[in-house]
Amino acid sequence: MSVLISNLELLPDRKIIKQLGLVQGSTVRSKHVGRDIMAGLKNVFGGELKGYTELLEDSRAEALRRMQAQAEAIGANAVINVRFSTSSVAQGASEIFVYGTAVLVE
Amino acid sequence: MEVLFTLASFLLLMILGYLFGSFAERRHYQSIWTREAQYRHIVVVNQRFPREKNVRGTQLVMGSVVISVDYFKRFLATLRTLVGGPLNSYESLLDRARREAILRLQAEAEQLHSTRVYNLRFETSSISLGQNDRIGSIEVLAYGTALIQE
């Protein structure tokens, strides 16, 4: 069973039985050469960098999966009040961090 | 000779940037306006507590976009930073990115047959490209909770 994720503080359709604490997941991704060439072109012409959008979407999904795994390990079936945060750790690499409160719901 | 070559390539990049950049921006705004009209039935709010009673489930929805400014506008911005003041050339970039992110979030909500998205949050970060660490690309993430109603 997958863990329910929500950024609301209360779930309107469920009752929280137990609060289990903070869970988190993160990934650090760097850009890639092929995408970088395209990005260089886009830097002249302007517009969306689709390669980067996909890259960041993938890493966000990975961070969410890690958070879900952590929540599952402590016996939670939902994570509420989820927040995302992005920071660049080095030139061309960024960290995607997601955290929330693990809870047990009905 | 070398100076002339550098100058010529700079001018070429400026012209290309201006032409393609303003074309892309106009086209993007057109598409934003049409899609915003199309998704108007999906109400996105930043209230934290939903009032709806007949809720069957909730689901996190996200929309994100990485968008870059063109060469011409970046040059204008570089000039602007010398004297300070409002950076008009970056304002439209951020506006487009935020609206695009919301539209993608709404598209995700529509797939879930949801018409209400609560607790919308934005997350903006700049992606540095190039050697001299100029801010040219920004990433905007919009996320919220879609209510699935009966």
Automatic annotation (TrEMBL), chain A:
InterPro entries: UPF0145_dom_sf, UPF0145_YbjQ-like. It holds the Pfam family YbjQ_1. SUPFAM superfamilies: YbjQ-like (SSF117782). PANTHER family: UPF0145 PROTEIN SCO3412, UPF0145 PROTEIN YBJQ. Belongs to the UPF0145 family. This is UPF0145 protein MED297_20907. It comes from Reinekea blandensis MED297. The lineage of its organism: Bacteria, Pseudomonadati, Pseudomonadota, Gammaproteobacteria, Oceanospirillales.
TrEMBL record, chain B:
Belongs to the UPF0145 family. The lineage of its organism: Bacteria, Pseudomonadati, Pseudomonadota, Gammaproteobacteria, Oceanospirillales. InterPro entries: UPF0145_dom_sf (IPR035439), UPF0145_YbjQ-like (IPR002765). It comes from Reinekea blandensis MED297. This is YbjQ family protein. It comes from the Bacteria.
